[in-house]
Amino acid sequence: MTRWLWVAALLGGLAAAPASAATVEHLNLKRMVEMSELVVIGTVTAQGTRVEVSPRQVFTETAFEIEEVVQGDKARPFMVLEQLGGTAYPGTPEEFTTVVPGYPQFRVGERVLLFLERTPAGNLVITGLGQGKYTLFDDPKTGLTWAARDTTDLNIVRRQRDPDLVFMGAPRSMDRMPLPQLLGLIQGRPVGPDVPVRIVGPKTRQLTLPAPGEVR
Questions:
Q1: Apex CA 131: angle with CA 199 and CA 64, to 5°?
Q2: Where do the domains of the chain lie, and which CATH numbers do they carry?
């Protein structure tokens, strides 16, 4: 069911210029972990676009410096994620934009936790569209690192509180919580929301992509 909903969202995004809500099946955390080949924490280091001529499509490539692999292949200091959509040839008469509703957006310098699944074609994609991307930020007053996701452009079917999250320390909403709490749930060890943590990984090799709008 999930795959068909994603296909419908993709086709809808290509057919219309303005963004609209993408309909996706609700994935509880247990299901997202099961579907994901990788769960990683990293920082966006670069972005670039590439264009395919036939059919005319633009893809956005985002490079990440990986500081921690929560689940999956540990030997991964960096990775590149490619998504359909973006703006090609900005500021020129040839400029055009493709918007795919539900696809999460990234910005250079953003720190994230990502759930990633492998497609039949062998590519890594965000699990559950926007459901699989959490932005990480530090509370300057408490030093606590928070994880939050934006699902405002998703029409999530059968969304409800998950029965597998009804235990001590589980949040009522999966859209915002302390990072240690989210990591505990992913790893099957519930953690209370009052445990401060800021994960800082070792520096790894930077991966450079073309500047935004530059076509390879």
A1: 45
A2: 2-163 (2.40.50)
